[in-house]
Amino acid sequence: MARRLNPWRWVVLGLATLYFLVPLAASVVFTVDVPGQGLTFDAYAEILSADGFVSGLLLSLELAAATIAVVLLLMVPALVALRLGAPRLRPVVEVVCSLPLVVPPIAFVAGIATVLRWGPDHLSRTPLFQTFVAVQDPSFPIVLVLAYVVMALPFVYRALDSGLRAIDVRTLVEAARSCGASWPQALLRAVLPNLRPALLNAAFLTLALVLGEFTVARLLGFQPFAVWIYTVGGSQAQLSVAVSVLSLLVTWALLLALAGAGGRTRTASSRG
Amino acid sequence: MTAALPHADVAPTASVKRRRRAPGWLAVAPLLAFTAVAFGIPALAMLNGAFTVQDRATGTTSYTLGNLTTSLQGPYLTALAGSVKLSAVTAVLGVALGLPLAQAVVSSRSRALRDAVLTGSGVLANFGGVPLAFAFVATLGNAGVLTRHLGLADAGWSLYSFWGLVIVYLYFLIPLMVLTITPALDGLRSQWREAARNNGATTVQYWRHVALPVLAPSLLGGLVLLFGSAFAAYATAAAMVGSTVPLVTLQIADAISGNVLVGQENVALALSLDMVLVAGLVMAVYLPLQRRSARWLDA
């Protein structure tokens, strides 16, 4: 097989390279070669000083950190417990974590918007109203964290489940327990270190999801990173494309770093 | 000695399970409670809203099927059909183009190429949304680099059309297909190809009678996954075409943000319910297929 040089393979790979690289290359050209101005790097220089960039990016990063923390705190104990016992709960958790796949983000946000309207409509006299207001604080909208955790559940479930499949949780916990460790100690010092690649994977997927999320944030009227790019795109085309290119490069770098950090152990353990 | 080993293994397992039952519930409970609030309440609100109508004058609400029938008529039906058509076309093209690409990568046996393509696919499959739309606007839009240098506008090209959207959607659907189908292609044993060749089969015959039937569940699963992914996509279309191409996601967004008549919110909820039904159908087809192909590959 490998001896025969296969011409169609090179045609396929060549066409694919062309299709996937041309838009990226053209985007870079678009930002650098402005008609009437010649070669300029103004678009990239403007990014940092652009109105709303820093606050939008910071908001996205804060939301991502909060989402990752909440989703891991909810999922890790639950999935470890499923591995240790409680087999009847396994299908329940599996279904709960797959449900968000059936509800597209736009339908989900339609539901959230309806619930949020209950606040002013029905609850304005009750103490619950304050909760509704606090949840929608534009400087840190908790409602987005709630939505993003739900949207991240399927990916995090898959990442953690395959990670847990590769290690023998029960033996690890039993070994730790018979050495005198308490339950939290066994979890923190025996199970979690062995789960590191899966945890990193889950965290990265969640980070990518939150940084790129647009639908829910825009329709609820908040201004994180992705919504900011969209808003800027209307008036400053060069700037918005420059930020788009950079955001792709940053995502790429993160994924490569993850592959470097967890790749070797992951390929080694997934065979077992 | 060897007979004693599995025996010794069983006893502590059973005792751990008994001791662990209550904590098992305790550890899962927060997850279930959270999803009940953060997912269950909005989902129920959507379901309830899809079937109710509020009388503006009296403020009373009543149950009705009117929203659902409205959501399947006129511009709403056009949008729904537009979404289904776009998703079907992009899913079929994504499978047809992703399969040869994945096969070229798997059969090359180059570790570096494989890693590069799979990592790249992981990034590009998630590279939907606004940045993707802007990258294509910069490339093929009205003032795009290729449009200007190749004079595409004179040839009647417009990115802000159905086929423009198809080209953009394929940018994240093909990588998604590569990621989905690569494990299945890895599962094709080289012995099968050798056996077919020894029996005098040509490459075409091998693909038609051996490889494709084995791959069929994975291919169908990929098709359904791509369809669902294109069907749910909103950000790319919103940032690119605005509303020149009728899509159900754009209609829902318009209705939620009050760009259309007041009182259409509940039609938006009915449209959302339509989407959930389609997505649910997609999952109902996809999950059994995925399980089936997983069984093949493990065997």
Instruction: Write down the oligomeric state.
Output: heterodimer
* Total beta strands of chain A: 2
Low-confidence stretches of chain A: 263-272
Given as residue ranges, the uncertain stretches of chain B (5+ residues, pLDDT < 50) are 1-21
Q: For the residues shown, what is the average pLDDT of chain B?
A: 81
Instruction: Please provide the ordered H/E string of secondary-structure elements of chain A.
Output: HEEHHHHHHHHHHHH
DSSP helix fraction of chain B: over 70%
Instruction: Give me the number of helical elements of chain B.
Output: 12
Can you tell me the CATH topology of chain B?
MetI-like fold
Strand tally of chain B: 2
**Main interface: chain pair and counts:** A-B, 87 and 88 residues
Using the 3D structure, state the CATH architecture of one domain in chain A: Orthogonal Bundle
Keywords:
heterodimer, A: MetI-like fold, two-stranded antiparallel ribbon, 2 strands, about 80% helix, disordered C terminus, B: about 300 residues, mainly alpha, MetI-like fold, disordered N terminus, ABC transporter permease (chain A)
Model description:
The complex is a heterodimer of chains A (272) and B (299). Chain A has 272 residues and is mainly α. Chain A has a domain of 167 residues: Orthogonal Bundle (MetI-like fold), CATH 1.10.3720.10. Chain A has 13 helices and two strands. In chain A, strands 1-2 form a two-stranded antiparallel ribbon. In chain A, a hairpin with a 3-residue loop joins strand 1 and strand 2. The C terminus of chain A is likely disordered. With 299 residues, chain B is mainly alpha-helical. Chain B has a single domain, classed as Orthogonal Bundle (MetI-like fold), CATH 1.10.3720. Chain B has a two-stranded antiparallel sheet. The N terminus of chain B is likely disordered. The chains are: A mainly alpha (272), B mainly alpha (299). At the A-B interface, helix 1, helix 3, helix 4, helix 5 and helix 7 of A face helix 1, helix 3, helix 4, helix 5 and helix 6 of B. Chain A: One of its GO terms (cellular component) is plasma membrane.
